[in-house]
Write a structure and sequence with these properties.
Helix content is 74%, strand content 3%. It has 319 residues and is mainly α. The chain is globular, with a radius of gyration of 22 Å. It is found in: Cell membrane.
């Protein structure tokens, strides 16, 4: 329907620009410093988890193996988005070519999907540990753990490649199209296409169901069995310990799946571009930041490992 408009000439390479958060210089500086601080905290927190898991032999268990992989994904996930976002907060809008936008979209969807799959894998690990403790070491072998992480990444890569390649075939009208977002996410880019996008929307919903709904249902089923097993524990201390090992994971699950579902599974008629951008800030900054905090503050083993590492470092410095 846009074909006849001279203002929407499609000659030349397609480029996108991101909508600015604010045009007020003082607010731009404040936002830049705030997001930079959050990004550095995400890097430090998740790197600390990876470090303590790799350097402490008593943390080399399937649960902490999955946790360290989740932390690594969170680091790369935010790094795909935040540096470009920070560069666009200060100064003039910098156009990003279609290929660059597609690359960011591909890695963002891949890593976000891997994140969701890993949370489902961690739920299965907790199910085996609590419901079948005697068989845990025989079931959750190192080989199986590596295969589960590789499968999560492989499935995420496959789905992301299909979705991204399909979207990049769309025509985008004009040389510079403004994305009402701070990254090349699928929904805001789809809104800029000057073609029928019903098939693309359907594919997006299918991918959303495979990445969000199916793993979340598996997590819910796992926690039904986990809850039943915990309630059969006779000692109050045993029940508290079992619940505490699951509560951290469940908190991250509700944040990640809840926010992503609001963006990717809501009907388009009920969505707002500004709301999507605000919700995206949660799973881009808040969830990766809370992930190490939640697991550190609610996990005795990780707290003990961090404490020992800090004391050991301080002791070596004084010597």
């Amino acid at each position: 329907m846009f074909a006849g408009s001279p203002a929407l000439n499609q000659s030349g390479p397609t480029e996108f620009v991101f909508r600015v958060f604010t045009a007020v210089p003082e607010f731009q500086i404040l936002l830049f410093l705030l997001f930079l601080l959050l990004y550095l905290m995400i890097l430090c927190g998740n790197t600390a988890i990876i470090w303590v898991v790799c350097t402490h032999s008593f943390l080399r268990t399937p649960m902490y193996f999955f946790l360290s992989n989740l932390s690594f994904v969170e680091i790369v996930y935010t790094t795909v988005v935040v540096p470009l976002m920070l560069s666009n907060i200060l100064g003039a809008q910098k156009p990003i070519p279609l290929v660059g936008c597609g690359a960011q979209m591909f890695f963002f969807v891949t890593l976000g999907s891997t994140d969701c799959f890993l949370l489902a894998v961690m739920a299965y690990d907790r199910y085996v540990a609590i419901c079948h403790p005697l068989h845990y070491t025989f079931v959750m072998t190192q080989k199986l753990c590596v295969q589960m992480v590789a499968s999560a990444l492989g499935l995420a890569l496959f789905l992301s490649l299909q979705l991204t390649s399909l979207i990049l075939t769309l025509p985008f009208c004009g040389h510079h199209r403004e994305i009402n977002h701070f990254l090349c996410d699928v929904p805001p880019v789809l809104r800029l296409a000057c073609a029928d996008i019903r098939v693309h929307q359907a594919v997006l919903y299918v991918v959303g169901i495979l990445v969000l709904t199916v793993p979340f249902l598996l997590i819910c089923v796992s926690y039904v069995f986990i809850t039943c097993a915990i309630l059969r524990i006779r000692s109050a201390e045993g029940r508290h310990l079992a619940f505490s090992t699951c509560s951290s994971h469940l908190t991250v699950v509700l944040l990640q799946y809840g926010c992503c579902s609001l963006v990717y599974l809501r009907p388009r008629s009920n969505t707002s571009e500004d709301e999507d951008r605000q919700i995206a800030l949660v799973y881009t900054f808040v969830t990766p930041l809370l992930n190490p905090l939640i697991y550190t503050l609610r996990n005795k083993d990780v707290k003990a490992a961090l404490r020992n590492a800090i004391i050991g470092k301080a002791a070596s410095d004084t010597c």
